[in-house]
Design goal:
Length: 354
């Protein structure tokens, strides 16, 4: 199985995982052979890519940290909570639903706690904020598990992560949906969302204080250059420091109307480069051990000119996976860029969109 861009989909390809519509309904099932009408529907929904099974990747198994059905239920829960918040309705039931979803996500993550995460962009444009909120929650909880948090602490972290952008319901939609960079005035308005979300949750919910403080502080930076208060280091709550890493990584790894997603490996390099400035070094260290820079099934070109497909990742060396060579005299051979010392000068130079 591997993840490919929707622009590479062709008639006759076989879907590798269930694909859901915007409202959580099953759109196409695992094993479905794609037809032109199906591909057009996938494009219309705004999906960046889908999983397929083919001859290149038939022996590659990609474990889901949180299954797609639960992800879609989480997306629906976040959407409903945002809608009720925007309408200034009673959010008590929505918050209980949010807690229930977070508990289910924790159960799944704990059952796969030793696996590295293969995050890809399975969002649709119209529901970006909701899919993003769920991805940030998965990444934050994975980091929390790795840091040894007990379940009660994971629940508080998950609530803060799932609702970290709830303040955006109070921001002008023209600013949120602008197909280009924000000007200074618009950026000043956008930056209010963290405080607005915090104030709403503080005044209208019974969430734990640590959860809504994380909402307030998730745009603070470790070196004190963030907002809204310019806090630095451990002045920033532990949850906010974790969510900050997950938030930036998923945003970089997402297609937006005004820019394409950057590669997972490039997003990982950005996170690593921000250690000690934008991000808490411990959070970065934890993150790079749990999230794959080159997700399983990624087709790459090596610096020696060979093309290959990623078949295994390593927590202690996220940028040097094992790959199966697809071309040349080594075709079919599996090599470990981490362990084979004769290949120390060989790197991954390019991700191929095939």
């Amino acid at each position: 199985m591997r993840f490919i861009s929707v622009y590479c989909l062709r008639n006759g390809m076989t879907l590798g995982r269930d694909l859901y519509g915007k409202n959580g309904e099953l759109l196409l099932g695992n094993g479905q052979v794609l037809q032109e009408s199906y591909i057009e529907r996938i494009l219309a929904l705004g999906y960046h890519g889908v999983y397929i099974c083919d001859n290149l990747s038939g022996d590659i198994e990609i474990q889901e940290t949180v299954n797609q059905e639960l992800r879609m239920k989480a997306v629906t829960t976040v959407r409903d909570t945002f809608i009720i918040t925007r309408a200034q309705g009673n959010v008590s039931d929505a918050m209980e639903n949010t807690k229930a979803i977070v508990r289910r996500m924790i159960e799944e993550i704990l059952s796969h706690s030793n696996a590295m995460i293969n995050m890809v962009d399975m969002k649709v444009f119209d529901d970006y904020t909701f899919f993003h909120s769920v991805n940030v929650t998965v990444l934050s909880l994975v980091m929390g598990v790795s840091l040894g948090f007990p379940e009660s602490k994971l629940i508080r972290l998950g609530l803060g992560a799932l609702l970290h952008d709830i303040g955006k319901v109070f921001i002008d939609k023209k600013i949120l949906d602008k197909p280009g960079p924000l000007d200074d005035e618009e950026m000043e308005e956008m930056n209010k969302h963290a405080a607005l979300g915090y104030e709403f949750l503080r005044d209208h919910s019974e969430l734990p204080v640590t959860s809504y403080v994380a909402v307030l502080q998730h745009h603070e930076r470790y070196d004190g250059t963030g907002y809204p208060y310019g806090l630095k280091g451990e002045e920033i709550s532990e949850f906010a420091r974790i969510i900050a890493v997950a938030d930036v990584y998923d945003a970089l790894n997402s297609d937006r109307p005004y820019r394409r997603a950057i590669l997972a490996s490039n997003a990982m390099e950005y996170i690593m480069g921000g250690s000690g400035t934008h991000f808490d070094p411990l959070c970065v260290e934890t993150f790079v051990r749990k999230v794959a820079a080159f997700p399983l099934g990624t087709v790459v070109r090596l610096s020696n000119g060979m093309s290959a497909i990623v078949v295994r990742n390593y927590a202690d060396c996220c940028i040097r996976p094992s790959v199966r060579v697809l071309s040349g005299e080594w075709q079919g051979r599996i090599i470990s860029l981490r362990d084979d010392h004769t290949l120390r000068n060989v790197t991954i130079s390019e991700v191929l969109d095939v």
